[in-house]
Write a structure and sequence with these properties.
With 165 residues, this protein is of the alpha+beta class. Helix content is 19%, strand content 32%. The strands form two sheets. The protein has a four-stranded antiparallel β-sheet with strand order 1-2-5-4, with no helix packed on it. A four-stranded antiparallel β-sheet has the order 7-6-3-8, with no helix packed on it.
């Protein structure tokens, strides 16, 4: 019992030291950081949703990103994925990346539960600090006025079929 109690005490001290060192390193990071990266907590697509199913491309931009230091920043799209098959032929691919603009096909699988596109992008400020961000946009037009459901497949929208990166 004595040994158990001793080990418990050692563990407690160790945990305390660990907590203090974590807090100190956290403080050190906050105070010595010369510049903060952009904040994409409130990033949303514009338009907020795609309300058509005409198979045409819709330009979608990303808004709501800010920079804590007021720096200028640029947005560069890294990847676009979707939860339905991209398909082949003239209605593929379903996304084209043009810098910070996503061209997304206004399309949904007639047999599916509604399409979501996931846009992954990087916001980089003029001091070179980057934030890795993501947002979702749905194709809202649906038979029977059903809400689109997120999930299922995970396809690269820029390539035919349904492939990964
Ligand atoms: Ca397609
Ligand atoms: Ca879906």
């Amino acid at each position: 019992m004595g040994l158990t109690r001793w080990m418990f005490a050692v563990g407690l001290v160790f945990a305390l030291v660990l907590t203090i060192s974590v807090l100190q390193s956290g403080t050190a990071i906050a105070t010595s950081h010369p510049n903060e990266p952009p904040d994409c907590t409130n990033a949303v697509p514009s338009p907020a949703a795609i309300g058509k199913n005409n198979k045409k491309f819709v330009p979608v931009n990303l808004v709501g990103v800010t920079d804590p230091d007021g720096d200028e920043f640029t947005i560069s799209i890294f990847s676009i994925r979707q939860d339905e098959p991209v398909g082949t032929g003239k209605h593929a691919p379903d996304a084209i990346i043009d810098g910070g603009t996503a061209h997304l096909r206004a399309e949904r699988d007639g047999k599916g539960d509604g399409r979501f596109y996931q846009i992954v992008f990087v916001a980089t400020n003029d001091s070179g600090y980057s934030a890795f961000c993501q947002t979702l946009i749905a194709v809202t037009v649906a038979k029977g006025n059903k809400e689109p459901v997120l999930g299922g497949l995970d396809c690269n929208s820029a390539k035919p079929g349904c492939v990964g990166f």
